[in-house]
Amino acid sequence: MEFRDLKRQYQAHRQAIDDAMQEVIRGTHFIGGPQVGQLEERLAAFAGVRHCIACGNGTDALQLALMAWEIGEGDAAFVPDFTFFSSGEVVPLVGAVPVFVDVDPLTYNIDCNSLEKAVEFVAQHTAYQPKAIVAVDLFGQPAEYDRIRAIADRYDMLVLEDAAQSFGGIWKEKRTCSLGDISTTSFFPSKPLGCYGDGGAVFTDNDVWAERLRSLHVHGKGGDKYDNIRIGMNSRLDTLQAAVLLAKMDFLEEELTACARVADRYTARLKDAVQTPHILEDRYSAWAQYVVCLKDNEERNRTIACMKEAGIPSAVYYKKPMHLQTAFSGKQIEAVSCAVTEGICKKCLALPFHPYMEDAEIDAVCESVKKAVG
User: What Cα–Cα distance (Å) separates residue 78 from each residue in 29, 101, 108, 319?
Assistant: First the structure.
């Protein structure tokens, strides 16, 4: 059994994907080919925003957003403690300081009570200026954008939506990648919309920021690539990846529906045995992962071993809170306790999950989990 079966996806759509890649190879426009612009237009329309700038990967997308806002030394950005490393990594990369805040024990997204306490602490007790909230849509479910926006407005901060795991998700009838002042996503192969390498994109309705982002992602270019008007970076999405993504856009909605079906079957069979994902009523998750919580680390280890014995893979997202990562030592403001995150890191477990899972495979995973937890 595959954890995320990209082979099965390719076999189901092989002709369309092969044709898209062959068109690029025949045209030999490997950098900046027409497919890149076509993809940007299609992604912007799908998300419901004015601008989409494709780039090299999801991490670059986050960094580009902070650079476009000119966030740097003396500024603070607030990041959930339970997330992938890049959500916080980009903050010191631009010279700012990260402030990690706790997450909700049911949705795993940023806890707005913890966020507000952290912002108040930084504003009242440090010399740093609260500038941005990195709102992560973890595992595919959009965060609490009404409360996040209220806190941001109160302190004159910007909202950066990290939708690396939620492309295709919905919050109150709005698509992800339209919920922040700037939003970003990742096209890493295992994401809800994944390419065949690295890729990412930045989304915004702001014309000035969009123009700046288009400059920043190609070495700070001006009129052309040899006219450099600012310090930027080299972060272009290559044409082959754009072609693959265009082909996959044609069946994205079909896959999102299939993922919801797989998630529903998992939940129906596991809800009485473990803590299953909690999706709020006004949300539609893109289901990047299906993550359960066990009783404790011992039960998680027992479950991993039981699944492995049955030939079933699993994964732990994430083993260590952000505030305990060595890389952030001396580079963060410790404003609030992140006890919920510390607990989740000891007992969360991701199960095999993809839109092509068969009922028998889902049931086999569930039986293995239930056997482990008794």
Answer: 40, 7, 16, 20
β-pairing verdict for 75-80 and 97-101: parallel
Mean pLDDT of 69-73: 98
**Number of Cβ within a 10 Å radius of residue 306:** 18
Pairing of strands 182-186, 158-162: parallel
Contact 99, 122 (CB under 8 A): yes
- pLDDT band for 87, please (50, 70, 90 cuts): very high
Beta strand 129-136 pairing with 75-80:
parallel
3-state SS of 239-290?
Answer: HHHHHHHHHHHCCHHHHHHHHHHHHHHHHHHHCCCCECCCCCCCEECCCCCE
- Report the distance separating Cα 186 and Cα 60, nearest Å: 9
Question: C-alpha distances in angstroms, 299 versus 164, 349, 371?
Answer: 29, 10, 11
Q: Global pTM?
A: 0.97
Residue 323 gets which letter from DSSP? G
Q: Which residues of 353-374 are buried (b: 16+ CB within 10 A; e: fewer)?
A: bbbbbeeebbebbbebbbebbe
For 13-54, what is each residue's pLDDT tens digit?
A: 999 999 999 999 999 999 999 999 999 999 999 999 999 999
